[in-house]
Amino acid sequence: MIGMTILRAVVLCMVLGGVCWAEDFQEFRNSDGSCLEASPKGISLRHCEGLPSQHWKLVPAGDYVKMSTEGSPDLCLDIINDGTNNQLQLAKCSNVSGQSWKATKSTRSTKLTSLWRGEDQCLAVADYKALVAPCSNGNHNWQTYVVQGGADAEVAEGSFDGEVPGTYSTEYELVLQFGRDCKLAIPGEPEQGTPLFRCRRRNSDMICIARNAADLGEVYSTRPGLKVLRAPIAQDGKSLVFATPRKAFQFTADPKAGTATLVQPGAQKCKGQYIAHDKFAAAAKTYGAAHPVYIPGPPSSSSDHSSTTTSTPAKPKGSERGRMCGGPTDCQSGVCAMENKTRGRCQ
User: Fold this and answer.
1) What is the residue-level pLDDT of the chain in tens, covering all 347 positions?
2) How many CA atoms within 13 Å lie on the side-chain side of 94?
């Protein structure tokens, strides 16, 4: 099977100007690890979350390529003809020079230029927004990653089915929590613990951070570096059903009943809880109030978590209730109620 996968990748490889590109979708990542994304508001940079709007396909068009996304396959990356000629958008694919791109791949990065603006004007980044700018400015080097998708895609060594590379914001709308008898088959996570998935919908996918929590502190912790998975949604009604591409993790949740199940091949079905964001945030707030000196991080190696010291407790880190925040780690309570995509208030 692996040999067939490799053969398939070789057969589907396209040679463009001496550069070999896989026919699969690509992620284009900036130097800070953020991904090139197409949205109704334009072309921008944001956290890499494995979204269809971040998956780009390069389609041959003579000596150049057309660039479209998995989310909008009929629209192409286009330079807006407004006199300034440096802003980007998705537009109906057509035979125009502003949609003809050349990808020049070096050992460490890829440079994107257009037929219209010439090889001295690159797809670059300024103020966290993608635009066309002189290549001499320097912020135009992109790292490219083949996106693994589809039931026959090979999972990279050390990763797991549905794993999303890159960073992940801590916003979520629901939590699935399972019992400690549920064994979570995710590399890098401990065998023992409480399987926990904090999820949110993104287009037709569910994006979840996954953790095998060692204790309640770990359950409510939002420390970075968590495993992230992407699972396309199969049903979103009375029950919520979603699964990773190769069905290694299959979830069914009933919001009304507050129940959830997790099926992993070769393992016993796990039963757990569906917890809405507000309810989970309230529980995290209560826990934070009872444990004001708790700092999210790896669990202690000691089996006794009770305090035996008489020293003055350390001042809680983070902002007080009511203060502005960008995420849970900004707050003493560990709970940031988001008012929009970027800001909220500590609870």
Assistant:
1) 333 333 333 333 443 444 445 457 888 888 777 889 987 678 988 777 777 888 899 998 888 999 999 888 889 999 999 999 999 999 999 999 999 999 888 766 889 999 999 999 999 987 778 999 998 766 788 888 776 544 344 445 556 778 876 555 557 889 999 998 898 888 777 777 889 999 988 777 888 888 888 888 878 876 655 678 888 888 888 899 999 888 899 999 999 999 999 999 988 899 999 999 989 988 888 888 887 654 443 333 333 333 333 334 444 456 766 676 767 677 766 666 666 556 666 66
2) 7
Which domain range does residue 275 map to? 174-291
Same domain membership, residue 181 and residue 135: no
Query: Smallest Cα–Cα separation from 99: which of 76, 129, 122, 125?
Result: 76
Report pTM.
Answer: 0.48
Residue 336 domain-assigned?
no
Is residue 345 included in any domain, yes or no?
no
115 and 54 part of one domain: yes
Q: What is the CA radius of gyration of the chain?
A: 23
* CA gap 287, 222 in Å, rounded: 13
